Amino acid sequence: MSDLVVVSNRGPATFSVDADGSLVARHAAGGLAPSLVSALSGTGALWIATAMSDGDRRVAVEGLPASLAGGIGLRLVDVGPEVRDLAYRVVANGTLWFLYHGLFDQVRQPRCDRSWHEAWAGYREFNRLIAEEVASSADEGATVVVNDYHLALLGSHLAGLRPDLSTVHFHHTPFCTPEELRILPSAVVTELVGSLAAFGACGFHTRRWAESFRRCVEAVACEAPAVFVAPLGPDATELTRVVGSPGTVRKRAELLERLGGRALVLRSDRVELSKNLLRGFLAFGELLEERPELRSRVVFIARTYASREDLPEYVAYRTEVEELVARLNERFGSGRRPPVELEVADDFEASVAALCSYDVLLVNPLRDGMNLVAKEGPVVNDRHGVLALSREAGAFDELGSAALAVEPFDVSGTAAQLGRALDMDPVERARRSGELAPVAAGRTPASWFAEVARAARRPRRGDGVGS
Ligand code: G6P
After folding, report:
1. Which range of residues forms the domain containing residue 218?
2. Residue 465 in domain
3. pTM of the predicted protein model
4. Among 18, 39, 203, 341, which lies 20 to 30 A Cα-Cα from 214?
């Protein structure tokens, strides 16, 4: 039993079973999980997550061996492969993620047909199973912090099962407007928003997503929970440790040699539809078209890692990205030095080495809850690198005034901003990066978590949107 319970779909690590039958933990390199690991250190929280791999399922049955626990109390719940597939692949990633990020190609998607409604029933069951685990693990009056769109229905389940708990839900994604919400069947909308509203409080990274949510609650006409804003920041201490680690130092030296004096335009993302990789490359292509002198003086490195390849849209997107990069290199490359390098590998040290070294960091998502890369870059970069940042990223609220603003759909505008960043004089670069670094490091996972837990314990209603 615990008086602080944290819930997320993905846990701190994915477990696999070695040839000799022992469990091996593989820690996620990006996304929500590393922030939660950092936030929970020393809190004594119990972390409840779902089993995703065969190794995870073994942990769900046998518990976590002390050698792998790393000071975190972890419980994995096995909801079964079918429920997990319907809830995670079809509803959470295939529907809610698309809805909240404005990604639907509405001529074709979504199709809320019989199989989709079955998936919604699976999502409901997924949420019920996790809620039961929470209800049986939380002390009387405990605080429960629930993360993200996979677990929206926990609100009403927990309100019914354990009204004594102080519950809070936090979206690390954007939230859609009431107009966009109308894409889903109205009974589903009522269930989804009504259940989120049954949490004591609902949190978001920026006012914009909080305001969209508040309007959705109004549209559904249910009783409003407290809505709050708590921006997340990177763990600067941990990043500094990684910067100085032998692996990162070696990878940085290799990178600098590969650059051979060329300026570095960098992006670092999951291969994710909302990250807008295609328009970023197209913009770089336009820049090289207009300014041939840059072809030998600049390299665009995209450090990416594969994501959600169980969804056909992601597989197709990755292929499209790879084909575009090949076309750009054919068009603008000469000899051994292609102007675009696409690296698809989950290698955190190599990503940090690149973040230390960029001249321009391109972060151009179509829409993003926060985008931690936009903060991690300015924290570790020591070249007075310029941040070209989408105005649709949550991070823009805090960093926009010192970044160069990118309108993510405007390819030519993005090309112009990349050119401007590359041309920027050293004094302006130093001024802007000097402004970015302290803001980017100003909030940590621990300070974020403290704000979220506080919001859970505040009286339920009447807070309104505020930070
Ligand atoms: C990103 C988002 C999180 C989300 C996670 C899920 O990190 O910022 O909001 O929970 O993706 O990714 P996954 O790989 O578990 O589908």
Report:
1. 2-232+446-457
2. no
3. 0.96
4. 39
